[in-house]
Amino acid sequence: MTNKSSITKKPILKTSAPEHIKYRLRKQQKKTQTKKDMRGPKDVIAGKDQGLDDNDNVVSATKKKAKKRKADGDAAKKAPKKQKKKKKDEKTAVENVHLSKRRLSSDGRPESVHNHTILQELHSVEDENTDRTARAESDHESTLETNEKVTRLRHLDIHKEAKINQGLEVLESNEVFSVKGDELEFSHTKVIMRRGPLFLYSTTRTRYKKGTQIDLTKLEIHPIPRPHIYPVLPTLAPNPLPPHVFLKRPNLISYAHSECLTEISALSMHEAQMCQMIKRSPHPNVAKYFGCLIDEDGRISELCFSRHRKTLNQMVEDGEIFDRTACLDNITAGIKHLHSLGMIHCDINPHNVFADVEDFVIGDFDSCALEGDKLGAKAGTHGWTSDDFVLAQRENDWFGFAKIKEFLLSPNDIKECL
Q: Where does the Protein kinase domain lie (predicted)?
């Protein structure tokens, strides 16, 4: 058997023990030594220091305390953390970042990331969230402003339509049919309206039953010019007549050639109405109109114009020398003035251009029509207009002007003018 006295006790501090345990053991030894120094005789006799000299008991007690501390530490980790000084959202963010960046050192002790770094990251996250919130609020405000503008424009459009349609009275409507083969096919509905003294019209592909109210907001409305409806009361020529006037009488040579030319009075009335418009807006390159003469029955007998020396055709036939380019410029100015009044001359030719010394004017308005009207019985002179013209359009006059340019200028002169 082995002698117990020969067994050597192991040292209290082991080199392989962790540093924190060594530190606690050294601290415990100091406390034990202090207690030994403070013992009295009664403590020695009673043997109360028996466990203090036993190194094995000290190590065992230290281990127990270490285990207890470890258990307490584990319990503390499992307990919920409460931080009263920080806001709830900041505390949660710090805790999440702290737990995600927690790591172990080489000796096994836990080591936390510094709070300064955590706060920096937290502030960075908060700044990003603030920027996103600001951008979202800005976008939301922009969307609201856009919606308000769109709503305002819609209200303006509705108000504008209501204002345009305000006071409109539907006078009549009628369905128009076109012939296709042997059958009639619906073409459109024509609606006539009135607002005060003004008359308007519109066409639509919609068919309305009798008694159905017509939705005016869906119609494209056009005004009807008053000269298209009402004849103008002719202006009487001054009495006595001024000197150097030309009295135009109805042309009877064409009487009875056709039914429309039999009613020459209608042609005279039409020319008097066209001349009435010219009288209100005179121009130096348009023949001056003084008014009409009325016979004892109250009928128009003659139209009174300013007298001119010759027609352009007579000047060319007589071989007179004149500035032909200036002549063309005068004709151009006269045509443009008539077009500005909504009139188409429809018979531009050398017989209807009159000259004095240097100025040239356009005259003879029996073929005149309002722009867009259907051409009547007199629709130009053969050779100076096109048979394809059906309506009174500006191209009718410029066609005649091109013919006059050919009449006045040689090919070389035309090239120079162009």
A: 186-418
Element of type H or E holding 160: helix 115-165
Residues with Cβ within 8 Å of residue 20, at least 6 apart in sequence: 109
Q: What's the pTM value of the predicted model, to 2 decimals?
A: 0.47
Contact 198, 184 (CB under 8 A): no
Tokens 């050597």 found at? 8
Q: Over the stretch 6-55, which tens digit does the pLDDT of each residue have? A: 445 545 444 455 676 777 777 777 777 666 555 555 444 444 444 444 45
3-state secondary structure of 55: helix
Angle between helical axes of 115-165 and 88-100 (0-180°, round to 10) = 130
pLDDT (tens digit per residue) in 136-186:
666 666 676 666 666 665 555 544 454 556 678 888 888 888 888 888 888
Q: Is residue 192 helix, strand or coil?
A: strand
Specify whether the backbone of 404 is left (phi greater than 0), alpha (psi in -120 to 50) or beta: alpha
How far is it, in rounded angstroms, from Cα 384 to Cα 253? 21
Do 368 and 274 contact (CB within 8 A), yes or no? yes
